[in-house]
Amino acid sequence: xxxxxxxxxxxxxxxxxGTWVILKRKGTQGHIWLGRLFFFTMLGLNITALGxxxxxxxxxxxxxxxxxxxxxLTAGYIAVKQANIRAHFYFLSWSYIGLVAAxxxxxxxxxxxxxxxxxxxxxxxxxxxxxxxLSCLLLLPxxxxx
Length: 146
Hints:
Elements: H1 3-23, H2 29-49, H3 61-81, H4 85-110, H5 112-120, H6 124-139
Helix pairs in contact: 1-2, 1-4, 2-3, 3-4, 4-5, 4-6
């Protein structure tokens, strides 16, 4: 299996488990189990991302974003170990948001129907990512975390 294939498999698992964690009741055994699965698939996803260079052949902005993802993922893990549920919520929310943003980027880069949209609406993908980030910046602080 190539590193790119492993990266894609891990990304798919992380997207599914992350979505499930968001939808499940917090603090349950299911939440904890799926949260661990999300954590480890994101960790593997980020590690494989650091080894992929086929876009430019060099270290690029995606590698820097991977380091940010590793930071939010690790900070969320540390926060839950310290029983800081608010920090855990915010760091892992941003980890998941980064994953969704990366998926939007991949969708428009590799999926032909989505890529054709960019012919008529250049930077539509970037606009979606900015809209996602802005809406999360506005909405996350309104969520009551205990």
